User: What shape does this take?
Amino acid sequence: MRTTIILDDDVAAAVQRLRRERGLGLREVINDLVRAGLSARTRRRSFKQRTQRLGLKIDVTNVAEALELLDGPGAP
Assistant: This one.
């Protein structure tokens, strides 16, 4: 596939450095970098909800009343 890409200056400099180091053409270096990026596996950390006991026992059936109790009267 033939396409045109615009590289940021820092990326273009890194690609040129790799070309010189490896003695490869632009196409080979770009393909190697794309393959490496596509095959890199990112490790996802599992989400864990942290809770904290506040010691409060409030009735939350009326949300406005519960917010007023928690935030104080006249809070924005």
The two ends are 58 Å apart (CA to CA). The first helix runs from residue 9 to 22. The mean pLDDT is 87.
